[in-house]
Each structure stands twice: as structure tokens, then as C-alpha cells.
Amino acid sequence: MARPIEFFFDFSSPYGYIASHLIDDVAARHDREVEWKPFLLGAVFKIAGTKPLIEVPLKGDYSRKDFSRSARMYNIPFAMPAKFPIATVATARAFYWLAAQDAALARRFARAAYAAYFVQGRDVGDVELVLALGENLGVGRDNLATGLQEPTVKEKLKTVTDEAINERGVFGSPFIFVDGEGFWGSDRLPMIERWIETGGW
Amino acid sequence: MARPIEFFFDFSSPYGYIASHLIDDVAARHDREVEWKPFLLGAVFKIAGTKPLIEVPLKGDYSRKDFSRSARMYNIPFAMPAKFPIATVATARAFYWLAAQDAALARRFARAAYAAYFVQGRDVGDVELVLALGENLGVGRDNLATGLQEPTVKEKLKTVTDEAINERGVFGSPFIFVDGEGFWGSDRLPMIERWIETGGW
């Protein structure tokens, strides 16, 4: 079995959301698994001295337009949230707490979280919403609340984020690795498929 | 006849260079013309407070790698110039002076200029090289040298650059418009083709 595709994303990232709708199908077409790895993009902005796209003069208007245009191209429901971007620490911690028990469950949570934010416009960084999303998936509210405070969970998110930025050169979301080769952006999925098919060039 | 595709690019832009190899074929497949519109990306950096990609922490290494990876995907010859980026005022002025007389000649000049920079690594912003490239295309050296100083030529480049940034929302190179819809980046060419084929979505 070939190595899993690594899918780094932030829960506040529109292009991450778009990729979340597509990446598993891309992988399945080529007999690959996907390792979902939420991280905190805010840490990148601090290091790189960059800002969220929509706050950059000139780029902002284009980005807002391109988010929904890109989603529409794939028939993915999308509505730009009024509150953007948001801090997604709790969301990502919930993911890793769930993932430690059940990878498929964690992925269902991730999809639900992305839909809550980019379809319903709800602040998915909010702990109460995170707990409610867990409940919808049959996860005990108190269990998850306790899980969010576990040192191993906090450490896991910190480690993934540090590794992404300092060792893997991740500076945006989504950032997708195929056999170690990194690709930035949901619009690179066709290039990624070609890379998988050909073994690279 | 449908409206021409507008191709905004800077002569110092690697992705502009890649698009220059592909855009005419994309257009021809859909019975479109291309209007080549070199502009000065440096003016954007000043307004947007952004920097050339390779100077942004984290993004720099990825960009250098992605330039050549993207070129290789299309079998386009590419070597990252040692001097990068460069000021391309003279190059763009030469283009517009030629374009006022012969659009096809201006396009041949643009291709030659891009090859000189991104294949041979020569500083194509240098006036002497610009004149030499003109000479290779049968353009009298003195005529072109005089042309570069013409107020109308200077004004043309200024107007295109101002219009691109202030009226069209251009903030990178290449920036390609299809029926008024803007797309940023050579990696958007497949999306552009789909847009032309479907009339947009």
C-alpha cells in the first residue's frame, strides 16, 4: 500500500473546506488513504508576517469571490461566514481527541465542523458548538469537554502545527503532501492527481 | 467573435512566463484572441504591501520549487534566474512601442524576452538586451531606443498598470480575464478553459 496522502488544513480555511469535499475521492481513485491533519494557520501568519487573504489589499475582494466561485465549480455548498477568520483551537483539539479513538469518527466530526462554519455560518471555534457537534455524532458532551483539556490532546495539536511549519514548510491551507511532495491549495488537486498517476516529474 | 482574453503579466514573473507558453493555445481551442498586456507588478507590491513570493518567509522555498515543477509539468524550459526579480520597465515599454505598429511582432518580442530571462537567465530589464532582442526580430536598434523614450509609450505602460490595479483588481501575475471574469495564476488555466466552455457558473 502506498503512503497516505497528508491533508493539512485549518478549520477556518475556505480552500481547506473545499479540499475536504474532494480529497478522499482523489485518494480513493488511486488506492490511497488520506491522513487528515488540522493545524493552526494563525501560527503561520505570525512567523511569515502574512495575513489572512481577505485582509490583504487587492487580494481580499478577489479571494472572497474566488472562494464561492471555486466551491460552485464543484457544486459544493458554500456561504462566506460573517465572522472570518476564527480561532479553531477547540475544533482541532476535538478532532485529535476523537482521532485517538476512532479515525473515521474524527473525520465525520471534521466534515460536520466545516459544514457548520462554511454552510451555516456558525462559529465553529466556539467550544459549545464543538460539544454540540460531538453530541450529534454520539459523543458524550462531558467526555469531549474533558478531552479538550487533556495535555496529550493539546500537545498533539501543537506538535502537528510545529511540524507542519518548521519541518514541512507548510504556510497555507490546505497543504497536501503526496509521497513527501507538497502542494498548496485546493486548486492544485488536478496537479496532485497527475503527480500520483505519473509518480512525479 | 467573442471578446479577446486579456493576459496581464509582468516580464519578471515565472508564472507569467509559464502562462505565456499556454495562453494562446487555450484561446485558439475556443476561437478566442489573446490581448497581451504587460504591466509592472512592482506597483502592486507597493499598494498591497506585499512582496515578491520568493521573499516571503516559508513561501519562498515552495515558490522556487513550484516554478520549475509547474514548468516541467508542461515541458516548458525553465531555469530560475540568478537575478530575481528584475525591473521590467524597458521591456514592457518596448512591447508597447512594437505593439502600436505590429501586434504579432510585439508578441514575438515578448516570447523572446521571456526566454532570455527564464531560459538563459539574462536580465531582460536591461535596455541593451531589449535593443538586442529587437534587432534579432529585425527592429532597428536606434528606432527602438528612440521608441522607448516616447511619451506615448511611457504613458501607455503607466495607463495599463494603473488600470490593472485600480480598476481591474489585478494584484499578481499572470492575471487573466475572460469576459471580464478575473483569474489569478497560471495554475488557473484549466478553470479558465472550463469557464469559457460553460460560459461561467
Structure notes:
Two copies of one chain form a homodimer. Chain A has 201 residues and is an alpha+beta fold. The first copy, chain A, has nine helices and four strands. In chain A, helix 1 links the parallel strand 1 and strand 2. Chain A binds chain B through residues 44, 47-50, 56-59, 61-62, 66, 69, 72-73, 165, 169-172, 182, 184-185, 187-188, 190-191, 194, 201, and chain B through 44, 47-50, 56-59, 61-62, 66, 69, 72-73, 165, 169-172, 182, 184-185, 187-188, 190-191, 194, 201.
Main traits of this protein?
4-stranded mixed sheet, homodimer, 9 helices, globular, 9% strand, alpha+beta, 201 residues
From the helix content, strand content and strand pairing of chain A, which structural class follows? alpha+beta
Percentage of β-strand residues of chain A:
5-15%
Mean pLDDT of chain A: 95
Return the string of H and E elements of chain A: EHEHHHHHHHEEH
Strand order of the largest sheet of chain A: 2-1-3-4
Q: Biggest sheet of chain A, open or closed, and with what strands and sense?
A: 4 strands, mixed
Largest interface: A-B, 29 and 29 residues
Number of DSSP-assigned strands of chain A: 4
Radius of gyration of chain A: 16 Å
Low-confidence stretches of chain A: none
- In helices, the fraction of residues of chain A equals 55-70%
Quaternary organisation of the protein chains:
homodimer
Determine the number of helices of chain A (DSSP H or I, runs of at least 4 residues).
9
Query: What's the N-to-C terminus distance of chain A?
Result: 21 Å
